[in-house]
Structure formats: C-alpha cells, structure tokens
Design a protein that fits this description.
The chain has 745 residues and is of the alpha+beta class. The protein is 23% helix and 25% strand. A seven-stranded mixed β-sheet has the order 3-5-1-15-12-13-14, sandwiched between helices. The chain starts with 19 loop residues before the first helix and ends in a 15-residue tail after the last helix. The chain binds dioxothiomolybdenum(VI) ion.
C-alpha cells in the first residue's frame, strides 16, 4: 500500500487486553447471553443415520409436551425464497443445503428438526419425544467407498494442481537420495470454549436481528439476508465477543438459518445454542488427510524434486478442499522440479471446513516429517538440511519474499534450544531411563491483507472512537487495534476506544486467514490520515491558530494529540484546540482499504519449531518437555498477546501430534468422540515450557505497520517437530497422527 511507515510508540508494547477486565468479571456479553424480551429456546434434533431418507416423523408427543411452542421439521418448515449460495452472497457458506428442505439425509448429525419451548429444559425434553423414522442406506465413510472423487482445479484463486520441472526424472536419478512416504492425519474438530449459538429476533416481518457467535458479522448479514429475501441492511448481526472459534465460526452453518426460521414461526426471539456433541457435526471440522510425499536431493543436501499428492474429504452437501500442498509445498522449499496435487473424496460425514491453518497445518506436518526422513537418508543434521534449502524466492511463483528471516529463526532457535548438543543417532539421548528426542520443523503461513473500512471520530476532549465490523476471537485483536489506532492518531492508548462486532459498523472481513491485524490495521492508518488532514485544514484556516496559513500538507503529528509543522515542530496546536477554535464538538473520517494484488513480492511468515520429548520405553506415552519457537511475522503489534497467539497454536499442534482425533462409528457414521472427555485436547498437565521469540524486521512493503498476522502460524510445523522428536527418541517413525502410545509399543 502507498502509506508511509507508521512510527511505533504503543505498537510492540505488551499492553494488557483492553477487554480483559470485562472478560474475567463476566461483564463481557457473548452472543448467547443476550436476552431479548420474550426469549424462547430451540433445541436441535439430529439424524441418527448418516445416509438415507426420513420416512416418517411423529411429532404429536413433542408438540403436547410442557412449554412447547413449535416443532419444525422438513414437513412443516417454511421454504426459504432462495437457497443461500456462497457464489451469490458475500460471506461464507460451506454447507449449501437449506436446513429442513427435504427428507434426504447426507451425514450423521444433520438437523432433522427443532423444538422451541419456554425453557431450554422443556425444549430438550420434548426433542427426545420426537420420533423420526428412516430408510437407512450404507454410508460412504472412507475414500474406498466415496460417492465421488475429484481433483479440483483451484481454491481461493490458487492452483490446486501444480507442476514445474521434471519431477519423475529427478526421483529416478540414481545420483540423488530419495524418500517417499504416506503421512496421514485424522479428522479434527474445532473445540472453542464457546459453542456456536444464534439468537434470532424479528423486529418486523422485514427486519431481523441476530446475536450470532461468528467470525464474520458482515458475512452472516449478507448470507442470512439473501436466504430470507431481505435487504442486507435489514439484517443486523451483533457479536461483541467471541469465545474462541479456530475457523468454525467463519461460515454460516444451518443452525443460524434454523434460529431465524424458528423465530419467525413462533413470532418471538429464539435462541439456539449447539451442545458440545452437536459441535462435532454441525460446524465443520478439519478433514482427515492422506499425503504422499516424495523428495529427492543431491548428495550435498539440495532439494532436486518435491512431489506432494494430498487427499481429503468433503460432504455431499458442500465443497471444501483441505489444501495441504498450497499450505506447504507451494511455499516451503525451492527445487528445480515441484509437483503438488489435491484429490477430494465425497463421503457421508458432515461438511469439512477450515480449521486454524487449514492446509498449512496438515501440509507442514507431512512435508516436515519427510524432510526429517530425507535428513536421515542423507546422514545430515535435520536443521542443516533445512538451512541449506532456505530460499529467498517463492518456489512456485518465482518472485522474492518481501522479507524472510527464516535463517534467523533457525539460528536463534538452535541457540536457545541447545541444538548443537544433539546426538544424531536415534535412542542415543537419555534422561535416566527415559528416552529423549529432539526434533525440528519449519513453520509457515501466508500474510493476508484484504479489504476493510474504518470509521474514526475524534472528540474535543481528546478521545477517539474507532469502529469496524471486525472481530476479536480471543486473540487480542481489540487490543492490537487500540494500539495501532493510538499510534496512527498520535494519542495514548487510554484515549482510544475501539469498537467491533456489529454489522452496523463499516465493512470488516472474516476474522480468518490471520488477516485482521494487517487489514483492519491498515484501514485504521488510512482513517487516521484522513482525519488528521481534516484537522490540518481547520488549523491552517483559523486566524487564531499558530498554524494559520501554513501549508496543510506540511502539518504532521508532532506529539501526543498535537499537530505541528514538519519544518518547525515547536509551532504546534493540540487537536482539542483545533476543534474548539472551529466550534466543533468532534470530527470524523473514514479510511477504506482495498485489496491489492502485488505481483512483485510474496508475503509470507516463517518460523522454526524445536521440540523435546521424553518417553518411558516401557509405557511409551509421549511427553513434550520443552518447546522453542522462533517466528518471523514482521512487526509484532503486542509482544505479550502475539506470543500468546503462537503459544496457543503450539498447544494446538501438540494436541494434533499426540491426542486429537474425531472417530466416526464405521456402521452408523455418527461421531463417537463428541465430548471433551472422549475427544482429547491438551490439558495443563500435557504442556510444559514453551518459549516464543520473534525475530526479523517490520515488513513495510506489506503495510504501514509492517505487521503480518500471527493467528495461525503457531500450529504449523508443530506436529512435525513433535513427530520428528519422537523418531529421534525411539527410532520409530509414526506416520499417522495422533502418536498414541499403542503406535509406539
Ligand atoms: Mo481461520 S481457520 O482462517 O478462521
């Protein structure tokens, strides 16, 4: 973008969360906690089969149960004017089927009805009385029985099938060292603390308000408006706080449409909050993957060929590609010959979707394990192999990265971790009777910057209000935006109020793809520049002002809340004086950031993940005892919250490596692991010291802050670092996650 670099005053400081007190005192109101007058409660009824047809529904008992106001099924649900469709509305809709549109069942857990009652307990009780009969068919659950298998051409504008050079010849070249293996990852399910929920309130037949747990208020507004044939501005979506999301709240899922349908049917506000079990079928998941990776390197360790064929799953009611090759082979290492491809199988499992670092997370697992195997085959240190293949250029686009400090990540990480003391042979390092393993992997995530508009108002008392329809998923985005606003306006953070989470505010994109800091931050800078221009114009026009008749273009921020001359900063006026002299209580401005395509540079963050595991040889439970992560994400807006993002990503990556796995019953296709006792995520006892460091410089080619997002990169490379450490400790190469003790016996 064209704006000049923003000077860092607040940026970089470890400011406490601006909403921390609200959150810990319970004063933060999450969407499901709103309570419009007359609120009723809906409980969703889910299919007990994964494939087939509903043959009959007996709702008599449910309708007569205490407190019940309505029972909706495909037999009586209102038909929506148009099916929602991601191609025709802004926003994200992965499950294309309109809920309750017919008797067809495409996956286990599909909604077959909703019961609305005066209380949640009454709704749940009555839901159990709803009798649904099915003609079940054998569900397709594995790729061997897939309903359809495809090799899609592209996703989000990136080619899914790519080839350069002669991979086959390089893989056959007898002078090269070659490895080829298949790596697999299981289905993983997003498990934010806050379950998905929507409260729908019809203020009139044409006006709808949704309190919706979402990563994309403007997307939900657009999709719901289209589904119900409403004007976009007649749908308001409110979501001031999000209790975690990891991607599952990016798309609009069926429960949101059901809430609006049910509220219309009963003429009252209706709340639908998913149960934890329903989160395992109704709000997406990370597809299982199977990835065949082949690498060839010359004896000096330089990569000569990379082949990466990835398979994943989608559902019969939508399309989604887990783009492992795009997330890894596309960007990680250069080689004369590179080939990647993606194959997608349609099965009777709920719609797969994006989950934190989609593509990158499973993709870096496979490629970074293969790199470790290549290091073994070459008898090279695995870190050295990576350093040898660190390229300043994007491997498939052939353009340079704007900045890339991956070499520093490797170096600083190795030093902090003590990598130089590593003994190469597996099973050679011990701590008493415990096997010790050290593993390394590269992390990477693209830097995204999309479109957003920010509105900003400066008041005569010297405070500023800043608004954008963006989101804080728990990442600390509100705090980062406060810091950027402070520096952009030349005010202390205490004078800034940043508001988000409402579709009433100017456009903000989905809080996904780690884009928000860059996107909204850049729009904040534009808004602040526009506002300061207005102030400068007022100051030079005021005969009483010290800046009277100065050139407005030479007026800049010279101190906290003060404008002055670039040539003579001592000649200055306060914002407050400019406003009072002009007789204005406040002044406001907007900054609109458009998405820009830059064909000259590639914007990408990198990092190095170092892991130590200790394993009892008799009971091979893997303990991650130390983790060192060094990241290059450009400027870090908030050192504390930035490090927390990386740390959280690493915890998630450790879960992926060792614990997380969604199982589906092979007969019924229903998710079996559907609570947090059966679906294992890391708990406190699983996590030890995690050391996060940032290196590199602000990426000022990317934006005025020099900041690239960091919401997702933490859980890339992590699972590979753990798996590689497990190999080093035990000599056993586990290629299918999670690495549970049975696989090491
Ligand atoms: Mo995140 S998976 O890009 O919402």
């Amino acid at each position: 973008m064209s704006t000049a670099a923003l000077k860092a005053q607040s940026m970089g400081q470890p400011l406490d969360r601006v909403d921390g007190r609200l959150k810990v005192t319970g004063a933060a109101t999450y969407p499901a906690e709103f309570h419009p007058a007359g609120l009723l409660y809906g409980h969703l009824v889910t299919s007990r089969i994964a494939r087939g047809t509903i043959t009959a529904i007996d709702s008599a008992a449910a309708e007569k149960a205490p407190g019940v106001r309505a029972v909706l099924t495909h037999l009586n649900a209102p038909k929506l004017p148009e099916p929602p469709n991601a191609q025709k509305a802004e926003g994200i809709r992965l499950e294309q089927r309109v809920p309750f549109s017919d008797a067809r069942i495409s996956y286990g857990g599909q909604y077959v009805g909703v019961v609305v009652a005066d209380t949640l307990e009454q709704a749940r009780f009555a839901a159990d009385l709803l009798t649904v009969s099915y003609a079940a068919e054998t569900p397709a659950l594995r790729k061997e029985d897939a309903l359809e298998t495809k090799q899609p051409a592209e996703t989000n504008g990136e080619k899914l099938q790519f080839s350069k050079g002669d991979v086959e010849a390089a893989l056959k070249n007898a002078d090269f060292t070659r490895v080829e293996q298949t790596y697999s990852t299981p289905t993983e399910t997003h498990n934010p603390m806050e379950n998905s929920a929507t409260i729908a309130t019809w203020e009139s037949p044409e006006k709808l308000v949704l309190y919706d747990a979402t990563q994309y208020v403007k997307g939900a507004q657009s999709i719901v408006a289209r589904a119900f044939g409403l004007k976009r501005e007649d749908v308001r979506v409110i979501c001031p706080f999000v209790g975690g999301a990891f991607g599952c709240k990016g798309p609009v899922w069926p429960h949101t449409l059901v809430a609006a349908m049910a509220a219309r049917a009963v003429g009252k506000p209706v709340r639908i909050e998913l149960t934890r079990a329903q989160m395992f079928s109704g709000t997406g998941h990370r597809s299982a993957t199977s990835q065949r990776v082949a690498l060839a390197a010359s004896k000096d360790g330089r990569l000569q060929a990379i082949r990466h064929q990835s398979e994943g799953f989608t559902s019969p009611v939508g399309k989604y590609v887990e783009a492992c090759g795009i997330g890894s082979t596309h960007v990680l290492y250069d080689a004369p010959a590179i080939e990647f491809g993606h194959t997608i199988h349609t099965v009777n499992i709920g719609q797969s979707s994006f989950m934190r670092a989609p593509g990158e997370c499973p993709g870096t697992y496979a490629v970074e394990c293969a790199m470790d195997e290549l290091a073994t085959a070459l008898a090279l240190d695995p870190l050295e192999l990576r350093m040898l293949n660190n390229s300043p250029n994007h491997p498939t686009k052939g353009i340079p990265f704007s900045t890339k400090f991956l070499g520093d990540c490797y170096k600083v990480g190795a030093e902090k971790f003590g990598w130089g003391r590593r003994q190469a042979a597996p099973r050679s390092m011990k701590d008493g009777r415990l096997l010790v393993g050290w593993g390394v992997a590269t992390a990477t995530y693209p830097a995204n910057q999309w479109a957003a508009t920010v509105w900003m108002q400066l008041t005569a008392d010297g405070t500023a209000l800043v608004r954008c329809a963006t989101h804080d998923l728990g990442t600390g985005a509100s705090t980062a935006f406060t810091q950027i606003s402070a520096d952009a306006l030349g005010l202390p953070t205490a004078k800034i109020k940043f508001e988000l989470g409402s579709s009433d505010y100017p456009f903000g994109p989905v809080a996904g793809g780690s884009n928000s800091t860059a996107t909204v931050g850049s729009a904040i800078v534009l808004a602040a520049r526009a506002l300061q221009q207005k102030l400068a114009d007022l100051a030079v026009a005021n005969a009483e002002s010290t800046l009277y008749r100065a050139n407005a273009r030479e007026v800049v921020v010279v101190g906290p809340g003060r404008l002055g001359l670039v040539s003579n900063p001592g000649k200055s006026v306060s914002y407050a004086d400019v406003l009072s002299a002009a007789g204005l209580p406040s002044i406001d401005a907007e900054g609109e950031l458009k998405e820009e395509k830059n064909a000259k540079s590639a914007f990408q963050s990198f990092g190095a993940q170092f892991c130590e595991v200790k394993i009892d040889p008799d009971l091979p439970l893997v303990h991650v005892t130390r983790f060192v992560s060094v990241m290059d994400c450009g400027r870090v807006i908030n050192s504390k919250l930035g490090a927390s993002q990386i740390l959280g990503g690493i915890v998630m990556g450790i879960g992926m490596a060792l614990e997380e796995e969604t199982h589906y019953d092979p007969r019924t296709g229903l998710p079996v692991t559907r609570n947090l006792a059966d679906y294992h995520v890391p708990v406190h006892a699983d996590i030890n010291a995690i050391d996060v460091t940032f290196v590199g410089e602000p990426d000022l080619q990317f934006n005025a802050m020099g900041a690239r997002g960091m919401g997702e990169i933490g859980n890339t490379g992590t699972a590979a670092a753990v798996a590689n450490a497990v190999f080093h400790a035990t000599g056993r190469r586990v290629r299918d996650l999670p690495i549970t003790p049975d696989k090491l016996l």
